[in-house]
Design goal:
By secondary structure, this protein is α/β, with parallel strands linked by helices. The chain has 2 domains: 13-226, 3-Layer(aba) Sandwich (Rossmann fold); 248-401, Glycogen Phosphorylase B (Rossmann fold), CATH 3.40.50.2000. The protein has 15 helices and 12 strands. It has helices spanning 13-27, 62-71, 87-98, 123-140, 154-164, 176-180, 186-198, 207-216, 262-273, 290-300, 315-323, 339-345, 373-385, 387-401, 406-424; strands spanning 33-36, 49-52, 146-149, 168-172, 201-204, 224-226, 248-253, 279-284, 306-310, 326-329, 350-353, 366-368. The strands form 3 sheets. It has a 6-stranded parallel β-sheet, sandwiched between helices. Helix 4 runs parallel beside helix 5 and helix 9 packs parallel to helix 10 (290-300). It is globular and about 65 Å long. The relative contact order is 0.11.
Length: 425
């Protein structure tokens, strides 16, 4: 299984989903080797074995290098190529070297790449180098199925498939259309499309995502299956927190980017504050719309009742849910959305956008269109004002999410593995 992050070091929901899925698979006797670019050593390996790509030599011998270059096609990319030789020059160099005598082949055998494992300026370069390392890993280990999570690992999955001949499952947690709307990055789209075309099966986290894959990437519907995400509640506990303010708290928790709809949360907050001052709004997260959101809050004159916490992780997230009276996820396009499940498990009444995959599996969250700030404000005001509505939503929501377990989701994933294995026999 190829991923990009794994708890406790995460920047979003992808790493959390990978952890939950691997734990669930372990209960179904599926052994997982989880590869990530840069492991820290403090990951929980009780149910999964972590392979740190930064510790893997790309090739140890001339023969191994020959096999990799014969089977793996490297994609040209544009990216920050200093101080390393970039993938485009690298491909040209390899083509040149292949035509020469192997005795003249100039490679530093045993070379290891130190991955940052982040989403920095040289991300594309790391994606391609990760694919090279994946080729070596595919040669060194015995496995039945390859499972790659999102576009960052697609090329690694393809490389592993070409080296091993094993079936490839691509897991789509989000598409470029979710992240950017219609202003897609053509390079990212190309990597997504390559992975989908090469995959033996594609797992989508919702029917919403499945439809995007079929219609935007032109993939055969028979190849795409939906497996909804879940939440790991094994470590959830009731916690008491000391609130420093008397007002009720309404929370937004997520990346402050276009996809997550922070501007709609701010506009709804303004409308609610016209009706009651007994409320504070919290925007927990970071992103490219962070400064813009602060300016909008200031312009609306609601700064005294609006707080920005920055990025939260681990215990901070759990405490934030414990502080909250209402949780809002106003995403413009959310392939699934795990945070509402976490909020509901903490007993927090939840409002979600209809444009989210999680809306397909929840009946006891209030659903509004992301753009309808009036409906969003009405829902927030109602949950803050009417105790009967709040109690019913929290009680029924808790019961509902307790049934959405990784054990059930992983059973469906295991079935996908079994199907692709049967097809390749």
């Amino acid at each position: 299984m190829f991923g990009w992050e794994f708890p406790p070091h995460i920047s979003g929901g992808l790493g959390t989903a990978c952890e939950g899925l691997t734990k669930g698979l372990a209960t179904h006797q599926v052994e997982v080797l989880f590869v990530m670019p840069s492991a820290s050593g403090d990951e929980d390996q009780s149910t999964v074995r972590i392979i740190n790509a930064s510790d893997v030599a790309v090739f140890d011998t001339k023969e191994e290098a020959r096999q990799i270059f014969e089977k793996v096609k490297f994609l040209q990319v544009t990216s920050n190529l200093i101080p390393y030789l970039g993938p485009d020059q690298f491909e040209e160099q390899i083509d040149l070297e292949k035509s020469k005598e192997w005795k003249d082949f100039r490679i530093s055998f045993g070379q290891k790449y130190k991955f940052s494992g982040t989403y920095g300026a040289n991300l594309m370069e790391e994606v391609m180098r990760y694919a090279m390392v994946a080729s070596s890993i595919a040669r060194q280990h015995t496995f039945d199925v390859i499972h790659a999570h999102d576009w960052l690992t697609n090329m690694a999955g393809i490389a592993a498939k070409r080296m091993s001949g094993k079936p490839l499952v691509i897991h789509v947690h989000a598409t470029e259309f979710d992240r950017t709307g219609e202003n897609v990055n053509p390079q990212v789209y190309e990597l997504e499309k390559r992975g989908m075309d090469a995959a033996d099966r594609i797992i989508a986290v919702s029917d919403l995502t499945r439809n995007t894959i079929i219609n935007k990437y032109h993939i055969d519907p028979r190849k795409v299956v939906t497996v909804h995400n879940a939440v790991d509640f094994s470590t959830v506990e009731d916690r008491e927190v000391s609130r420093g303010v008397p007002e009720k708290i309404v929370t937004f928790l997520g990346r402050i980017t276009y996809q997550k709809g922070p501007e709609y949360f701010i506009e709804a907050a303004y409308k609610v504050l016209q009706k009651t001052k007994n409320v504070r709004f919290v925007m927990a997260g970071s992103g490219d719309m962070f400064n813009r959101s602060i300016r909008r809050v200031a312009k609306l004159g609601i700064s005294s009742h609006f707080h920005f916490t920055g990025f939260l992780r681990g215990e901070e997230v759990k405490n934030m849910f414990a502080y909250s009276d209402v949780y809002v996820m106003p995403s413009v396009s959310e392939p699934f959305g795990i945070s509402p499940l976490e909020a509901m498990r903490a007993g927090v009444p939840t409002i979600i956008s209809k444009q989210s995959g999680v809306a397909e599996v929840l009946n006891h969250a209030i659903k509004v269109d992301f753009w309808d700030v009036n409906a969003m404000a009405d829902a927030i005001y109602g949950l803050l004002t009417y105790p009967a509505l709040t109690t019913m939503t929290a009680r029924c929501g808790l019961k509902e999410v307790n049934a959405l377990t990784w054990d059930h989701a992983s059973a469906k994933v295991k079935k996908v593995y079994e199907e692709v294995l049967e097809e390749t026999l």
